[in-house]
Design a protein that fits this description.
Largest sheet: 7 strands, mixed
Strand order of the largest sheet: 8-10-7-11-9-12-13
CATH class of the largest domain: Alpha Beta
Number of domains: 2
Order of helices and strands: HEEEHEHEEEHHHEHEHHEEEE
Helix content: 25-40%
CATH architecture of the largest domain: Alpha-Beta Complex
Distance between the termini: 14 Å
Structural class: alpha+beta
CATH topology of the largest domain: Phosphoribosyl-aminoimidazole Synthetase, Chain A, domain 2
Strand content: 25-35%
Bound molecules: magnesium ion
Amino acid sequence: MKVSELGEFGLIERLSKLIPINDKDVVVGFGDDTACINVNGQLLLLTGDIQVENRHFIKDKIDPIDLGWKLISSNVSDVVACGGIPRWGLISLGLPKDLEYEFIHNVYKGFKQALDYYKMFIIGGNTSSSSEIILDFFLVGETERFVSRSGAKPDQAIFISDEIGMSRAGLELLLMGKSSYEDFEKRLIKFHTRPKARIDLQYKIQKYAESCIDISDGLVGDLNHISEKSKVKIIIEKDKLPLNDDLKKYCEKYNKNIYDYILYGGEDYQLAFSVKNENKKYFENIFEIGVVQEGKGIYLKDKENLIKLEPKGFEHL
Ligand code: MG
Ligand code: MG
Ligand code: MG
């Protein structure tokens, strides 16, 4: 059997059963945005992410500064989705022997920008030669309360932290490889190349979110993780989904359906989370898009119609 036949989630499920966790200090193991451990009363969050050349990026098509920025941001996003702040990272490099120094120098410039922005440090790691560029980042964060994927309960409201869908449009624009781009297209590309993890919402998520996930694979796919872990149904109200102006222009110009981008686009690194009604007041200036109910699955409410949405998030294998 090939690993690709199992798919990313099937593979993780199989492998994690081979190494059962039996440690009272592990609060959460596999299956959330981060793992969580209790070290003498302090909750630590552990997470990792890898960028592989020709899989996640193409060397001649990416600005290495953006690559560095994005690797840190995607990890910080997972920590924030669990209510935490990022603290310490380790970076492991696999580099082809003939790689020009300038490329990795610029990746580190991107790291520095992100480390300053998120107020954290890289304190170690490892280096090896390899046939393709591999950047593997491991991050430790801290929290006072672990916000899992499994805390959604009927009657809670579903929020997203901002407009979404722009990153996928930005990626498509980049892949078009045009010699010039309109201003709105440049802005969409930036959503893809320079995503900002929502560190500004960290405190409110830690205090008032009952469940939370970061939108890396697409809204429906990621909400489906909350739905499965929390054993609830989630209704998204179509009228409440925010429409980004530049994404609207993009969809008009290239004849696309904007809801494909909002529901299934990935790599926005915004947060989707559930909140008790009495705590909705803390999230007034962001977007309430739906509600949690008893049952299972993700549904879109369009006027009086209820449409079942199948998750088709990005699988990495
Ligand atoms: Mg995540
Ligand atoms: Mg991640
Ligand atoms: Mg979470």
